[in-house]
Amino acid sequence: MNKYLYLILFLFCMSGSVDIYANCPGCVIDLPTGMPDDTIFLGPIPNGTTNQYYDQDVSFRMPMSTDPVNETNPDIPAGLSIIEIKIINVSNLPPGLAYEANQTVYDPQEETDGCFKFCGTPLVPGLYTIDVTVEATVFVLTEEVTFPMQILIEPASSTNDGFSMLNNSGCGEVTTSFENNILSNGNDGFSYHWDFGNGNSSIDENPSDQTYTESGTYIVNYEAIIDTFGYILTRVSVEDVACFDIPTAPDFSNNPDLHVEITDPNGMIIFESETIWNTDPPIEVFPNINMDEGVYHMRVIDEDSGINGADDICAEINFNFLSNGTISGTDFELVLDIFHPMDTVNTSDTITVFPIPDAPSISNSGSDQFCAGETVVLSSSYDENNQWLFDGVSIAGETENTFEVFESGIYTVQYTSADGCSAVSEEIEITIFENPATPQYTNENNLLSLLTSIVYDSEFTFQWYESGVELIGETQTEYCAMEDGNYTLEVTDPVSGCISIFTSSVVYNGSLDCFTDTEDLANEIDLKIFPNPVANWINVSLNIPEASTVEVRFYDMLGRLHSNEVLTSQVNGITQLQPIAVDRLPAGMHFIELRIGEETIVRKFVKN
């Protein structure tokens, strides 16, 4: 393939990979302004994310000529017009995704801009190599080429109030990462509990990745407890005390005059309520004190200072931030409301592991080895969702249950389930043997002879047929026709068993003998070889004017010397050589070679 055409196809393939069978119509061409008319441009192709619907348009501009290519590669000749670019097919799409172009055939001299749409919901993460097949025409040269391009499908993520997950679905085995959305930032008061649904749990703020090896749906439960407000003494209720006052005017009441005093663990008074005069418990005060660790001290005092006498201690207690509730003494009862505000976040999410389907199996309609021209059909054990591969590369458009083999190589089939999970069959190696060259023959004096221009390995075998009937014993490259008929020469490669045949109609000429000598030298020396056909002994008669040495050799029809023995005789005048034994020769056609001085004569004879 010409280098300039290859590069054009490559550049366009990178910008125009489109599935013409998809259902993603309506892409919009959006190219940067100010671009040259004759240029190559591809818009950015965004990544996809599993389980998230994807709908993206990609625009491109194709070259009108080889000029833009020449600018980057001077080895490519400039000034050649591109007649047509056609988008043929795309395969190996990520499960769940599809493509569609605004059109599939372009005449760059009229239109160079196009777009395609990616759409669908990708199901399985990974870096996918998509095989794109395009056809381009430059002058009268048209080439169809398949190129790879890549698209990245990133793992899905899931986010809720408590945490995020990366890669929360997949096939066969899924490893999921977790990110805590409620971070402590190093502060105290945060605690966590994770239940990953796979038998594992954690109290770490950021747990390690979890691997899910069995198919199914896993529920991840998360709890975050935020305890950063501490303890607050919000209310003190004096329910009962034994204090009372001496009745005095004007109402002569003996109700105490109460107030509450609180001291922190360091002995400092941190709260003192106003005095509630002539009160009848219960009474409430609201300190709203943030409490630390340590022992606090509280007194309930009946204020009797002045002329009424000294103050009375009605209740006195030690307490801490855990002393929430009722505290009773011999003659008092207090209720402390210590508020401990905590924020608890409970969320859950799911991880789905889809089962990997059973690997498909391939059945073969014939042998793994066959001859060119024969038909072998491979069948997948799945009726649908197949993709056939040749030497590990997807075969464009071959997604049916069966595939007809035309080329030697290793074949597999990939099945993809409805979940987007795939399995690949075991390899099956197919060998297609070339048939032998067609054994054409000529007819000379009723002698049918294989063309000398056709050469076969010495192991190849031959068989003659007349009108479809095997001629027993006729296994040489020549045959003497004895009647009109359709004669077939069959050649077989014994290694592969492959056969080629040639059939021709032969008209028998009764006035000719297959073995009539037409050689001038043979006529000059009056050479005779008899009988022919021969059984056990062959005779050679010749007339040589001057004394000479005659060497006799025997060859088969493939030119192989039957024996290294050379028979030599001295000849002068009319001589008949001693009869030569040929009983050890196999039946069929043979050559007898006579070397007389510097001359060589070759004659044919038939051994019965």
Alpha-carbon distance between the two ends: 56 Å
Tally the helices: what do you get?
Answer: 3
Major sheet: size, sense and barrel closure? 6 strands, mixed
Q: What best-fitting shape do the alpha-carbon axes yield?
A: rod-shaped
Question: Structural class per helix/strand content?
Answer: mainly beta
Number of strands: 49
Percentage of residues in strands: over 45%
The CATH topology of the largest domain: Immunoglobulin-like
Low-confidence stretches: 1-21
CATH secondary-structure class of the largest domain: Mainly Beta
Helix content: under 10%
Mean pLDDT: 84
Total of domains: 6
CATH architecture grouping of the largest domain: Sandwich
Radius of gyration: 52 Å
Task: Summarize the structure in words.
There is one protein chain. The protein is built from three helices and 49 strands. It has 608 residues and is mostly beta strands. It has six domains: 3-154, Immunoglobulin-like (Sandwich), CATH 2.60.40.2310; 157-228 and 344-353, Immunoglobulins (Immunoglobulin-like, Sandwich), CATH 2.60.40.10; 231-339, Immunoglobulin-like (Sandwich); 356-433, Immunoglobulins (Immunoglobulin-like, Sandwich), CATH 2.60.40; 441-506; 520-607, Immunoglobulin-like (Sandwich), CATH 2.60.40.2550. β48 and β49 (599-607) form a beta hairpin. The longest helix has 13 residues, at 3-15. The relative contact order is 0.08.
Short description:
With 608 residues, this protein is mostly beta strands.
Descriptive tags:
608 residues; mainly beta; Immunoglobulin-like; 6 domains; six-stranded mixed β-sheet; six-stranded antiparallel β-sheet; rod-shaped; disordered N terminus
